[in-house]
Amino acid sequence: MRLEKLELQGFKSFADKTVFEFPKNLTAIVGPNGSGKSNISDAVRWVLGEQSMKTLRGKYANDVIFKGSDRLSKLGMASVALYLDNQDHKLPVDYREVVISRKIFTDGESEYLLNNNKVRLTDILMMLAQAKFGQKSYAVIGQGMITHFLSSSPQERKEFFDEATGVKEFQIKRDQAINKLIRTEDNLGKAKVLLTEIEPHLQSLSRQVRRLEKRDKIESELKLLQEEYYGFLWASLQTEHQQLKSQLVTKEGVAQDLETALQKQQALSDVISQEASRGERYQSLQKQFNELLERKSQVLKEQAVLKGKLEVEHERQGELSLVWLQRKEDEIMNDLRSHEDEMLVLEKQLSQDKNSLGRLEKITQSLQAEFRQEEYNILKLKEQIEQQANVMTVPEIKKEVRDIFEEQEAFLRELLQTKSLDRFKEVQAKAKKITVRFAMFMDHLNSEEKETIEAFRIEMKHKEQALQKLVAERENNQQAVNELRVSVETTHHKINLLHTQINRNQDELAQIQSNLDTANQQDEKETKKAQVLQYNSALQELHAQIAHFDLQLQGTAKEIEQFNQEEEDKKNRLLSIQSEMRSLQRKLTSMRQEANTLEVNMARVETRSEDLRAEIERAVSPDLHSKIYQFKPTQPITDHGVLEKKIFSLQRQLEAIGSVDEQTIQEHQETKERFDFLKTQSEDLTNSIVSLEKIIDELDATIHRQFQKNFKIINDGFEKYFKILFNGGRAQLEMLTDTEADHDLPSDSPQDLSGESLHNEKERELIGKKKKKQKVISGIEVQAQPPTKKVTNVAALSGGEKSMVSIALLCAIIAHNPSPFVFLDEIEAALDEENSEKLSAIIKILATKTQIIIITHNRITMRAADILYGVTMGREGKSHILSVELKEAEEMVTD
């Protein structure tokens, strides 16, 4: 590996982009004082990661940026780039050419680049350490470092020898391991603190989780028992309800059949009543009979008129004899007697109908009296019930009793006003509702109250049945009264007609008697014969009509007689049907009572079901409701009490446990995971500490071993080059050791990622523990004795002698462990011409092992160089360079 070129821009006096190429092994940079020669060595040291501004001859980080001049403005950035040939891959990167760059801006922000890729300073330092050089190494020997080396402390010299012996790479690794160990122990301490804080909380959470697990177990067991217990109760109630419902459906079906049969009987009764209605059919026949009588009466009137005309004509014709008039008088008297007989019959029938009507009215009055008596009894019974209700202690029950009997009183008033069976059925339906409500009310009474109320209820029931019977009898009697009234009216009509006929016959008889008186006075007979014949013909026709009417009247009379017989038969049938209807009504009433009882029981089961549902909603978690309502018991529960006690016991256990936050499990899990993580981390950190301590011990051993080995070689080389420069004498290096590890810290202390020493108590304590009081190298002492002198203390040497001692040591280091390139800044300034010749010869020899760039004023050194770079300071305040290859220059001068 070699340095190909150095590129500067904006760095100190090099304002413009300036490139130094180094094709040869020995290059000299020359120029007057103040031209900016030393800025080149500062640039190399800076790009290699130097952080000390004192070493770079500045105060602030941005002091390396070109500050401007009278003619030029200041710049905002400075950059330096090293171009290294890495074909031998001495640098551990996969580049044949490696470009290390560093830039800084006016705000102090700095960045490092490796082949134009941003990297960390640590990456640069590690790469350079693996290549055996860096900003702290002997690769850059600046002004004053030669004399400073001997005047520095042994501990400071130790740091220089770390680079020279090649242990810097291992020290960086050790420093990194120590830093990692410190961070690891710090993290372990934090983890232990967190574990100490978390563990009590975790234990508390664990107890809560155990309580919650116990609660969950009890709740699971409780849910199973509740499902079985409440599920069986619910299923039993539903089964009982279904059985009652089935029985009720059966009873209602039977009641419906009975009601249908009753309706059929009622319909049959209605049909018979319509067919045998004395108010309609009888009136129709009677009307027909009366019409016939009326028509017959009109014909008789016409006959009488014709007879009168005929008699007139007879009188006129002399044909009207006394014999005929007497015969006519006899006929009229016969008719009069017949009508009087018929009137006697009708008056007798009228008397009978009036007697029957009076009898029925007495029965009706008796029924009305019974109605009033029953009403009085019911009112008395109501007063007794109200008195019983007042005895009850619960106001709600009193109110319920009053409400029920107020409804029943209204029902009874409506019943008393009922005048038909159809209306009675509607009232009966209301009674059914009152009965159901009364039965539900009875559930809230004690046994004594129930017995009293039940006795009143039975008595009330008997009264209701008596009222039902009275209503039916009253309706039948009312129908009979109506029929008799129609019959009486019809008979009155007949009698009136007979009176009219008798009056007519009496008038006709008086006329005949008058005619008898005037018969002897008529003498016109012949002149009106034709007219008489005509009257006789019309009279015969009227006789025929009268005979026809008589036949119709006889038929109508027979039909009326037959009708009356049929009415009697149908009345008997109606009585039979009514008896059958009463029997059906009793059965229907009984069936409805049984249905009412079933409905009451169903209402009780439904109430128990609702109470059970409310208890389930209150006592059981919602997710169990559907299971309970759908529970199918496989076998009956023999002992509900035992199951109930188990449920009660589990509920008490849950109450004893109390409420536990459901988030506790998640919190416990998260805390447990964090605790386990921290515990694992603690174990891993402990293992890492052990591993790091082992690595540090191994690195310390490697550093010590390699330092001892290379120090001996450098010590031998130091004596060799000392004798060359001093023409004899003696010189050696001596390692200072100390049993206290703390004394080794200044020269062997770790560096952090920024390259600064980590001098703090924690590191001192750590390193002190790790080194376990072994012997450590605390510093390097230099002893030198020039020829003819007895002094060995370098402090007593002259300035030139000190420079020669330092140069001898530097040459020994370069000869043993050459850096890829070395910058020497005026190291021969204190030497005379003779010693400069000696140094020039040594440098030529060393240039065969490494690439040397020397900044010098010495002409002897200049002649030894392959290439010369001249640096001058322009008027604008910036440095300029000029390069010359000396061999070509010499050939040009020779020519």
UniProtKB/TrEMBL annotation:
<dbReference type="InterPro" id="IPR027417">
    <property type="entry name" value="P-loop_NTPase"/>
</dbReference>
<dbReference type="Pfam" id="PF02463">
    <property type="entry name" value="SMC_N"/>
</dbReference>
<dbReference type="GO" id="GO:0005524">
    <property type="term" value="F:ATP binding"/>
</dbReference>
<dbReference type="InterPro" id="IPR003395">
    <property type="entry name" value="RecF/RecN/SMC_N"/>
</dbReference>
<feature type="coiled-coil region">
    <location>
        <begin position="453"/>
        <end position="529"/>
    </location>
</feature>
<dbReference type="InterPro" id="IPR024704">
    <property type="entry name" value="SMC"/>
</dbReference>
<feature type="domain" description="RecF/RecN/SMC N-terminal">
    <location>
        <begin position="3"/>
        <end position="879"/>
    </location>
</feature>
<protein>
    <recommendedName>
        <fullName>RecF/RecN/SMC N-terminal domain-containing protein</fullName>
    </recommendedName>
</protein>
<dbReference type="GO" id="GO:0016887">
    <property type="term" value="F:ATP hydrolysis activity"/>
</dbReference>
<feature type="coiled-coil region">
    <location>
        <begin position="553"/>
        <end position="615"/>
    </location>
</feature>
<keyword id="KW-0175">Coiled coil</keyword>
<feature type="coiled-coil region">
    <location>
        <begin position="329"/>
        <end position="356"/>
    </location>
</feature>
<feature type="region of interest" description="Disordered">
    <location>
        <begin position="741"/>
        <end position="760"/>
    </location>
</feature>
